[in-house]
């Protein structure tokens, strides 16, 4: 721990990824965040690009985020280097998941969580609840409950998918996913494939996936999907041929109107279409043709922080038992200085999950 106290390890400035305006990103120097009494300062070790949310923010298409320039990133791992006077849940040296800087301290610069930076913050949710200071005046944010310490026996590369996995697993109850249900997932990105991996680890016997990408279909096969379907003109026919009575649950892991409408044609009686991907369209038009009389549409557009926090330990246990692994997800590992190139790889559909080393 002595090395952490060297002056060189505590510079006043840090590098951070900034979305200057829709379509333009850059690395800039900012003042390092200053932790409050219930916060700990975290030196980032690894982050991951969220192919959906991060790209939608970069392109100016994420609902509710309209202020630019803005910081970026919400998936990361760091190590605590200092802690506020009232912090009790974290100590210097702890590895922590989901550090975020919710306020930049820079006039005119908004925060889109700000994990893509050399330093970030975690808030002590448990201490704030215990002390009765869960309010804006004390800097409280409900997302603090998702900021957890990482078990020492699990390496960074195995837990860097946890932000995605926890959100996916926390949606199971919303969508009614249980072991006896048949499930069809639309989307072969990290979220769609995470549904496959976790559903199989959870014990589902019939887990299928559809995507346009051939190499992502192969990924789904490696994750032991029971059946994969190419998203093409024959999709409806092929799916009905496989499940004549329809699927119990259909997951839109992308957030597209056309996927929802395809699901309407493939859902079972009293089935559920669950939309996980954030919908960027202002108007949603449903075509109620070739469908069952009764079915439900559930929009899960934002994580439930309490459920996400509760998913942390069960998923860590799945990792320990090697029921889930990041191996099939991580396709590229880069240094922070090269992060702009990584976004190009994702846009070109050449990368699944890119992790960033600081």
Question: How would you describe this protein?
Answer:
Helices cover 26% and strands 25% of the residues. The strands form 3 sheets. Strands 3, 5, 6, 7, 14 and 15 form a 6-stranded mixed beta sheet that branches. It is globular, with a radius of gyration of 21 Å. It folds into 2 domains: 2-161 and 326-357, Medium-chain alcohol dehydrogenases, catalytic domain (Quinone Oxidoreductase, Chain A, domain 1), CATH 3.90.180.10; 165-299, Rossmann fold, CATH 3.40.50.720. By secondary structure, it is an alpha/beta fold. A hairpin with a 2-residue loop joins strand 1 and strand 2 (24-31).
CATH class of the largest domain: Alpha Beta
Extended strand count: 15
Structural class: alpha/beta
Helix count equals 12
> H/E series, N to C?
EEEHEEEEHHHHEHEHEHEHEEHHEHE
Average of per-residue pLDDT values: 93
Distance between the termini: 19 Å
Provide a concise account of the structure shown.
The chain is an alpha/beta fold and 358 residues long.
